[in-house]
Amino acid sequence: MSASTRRAALGAILAAPLASVPVVAAIPPAAYEADFIALMIAATPTLREHDRLWKIACALYRDVEREFPWGGGRWQLREASEVWAAYDTAWQAASAVHLELEDTFERFQGRPMVTERGVLMKMRLGRTLDGLFEDDSWHDLARLFEEGTLCA
Question: What's the whole-model pTM score?
């Protein structure tokens, strides 16, 4: 095969539409999205508990910062205090729920949702899990708008 023939063959391969390349394999979008929505509905109490626990942990951390301000030389003493122990206990509880949610939903990261309900649930999850799904959900929302699925 000559160099010009190889270049022509490579050019034909590169010119082929990428739509023929499977982006999401194994599970059709409707199936994994239905699974995601069902899990989100089941996880609603856990999501609420997660948010409640993090509010408590954040409030206790603000108490730690008030009692042990930065730059005053006392910050190094904070971990021996009762206020730190309360914060640490709250943080451990919130973190355990956070990790449980991450483990439950990580298989959906990077998978596009095609319904408004799926996109909105993904946005909710992104807010709860510190943005893990937030960028994905904004891309999904923009795609739905461009497809004309959403009302203008």
Answer: 0.71
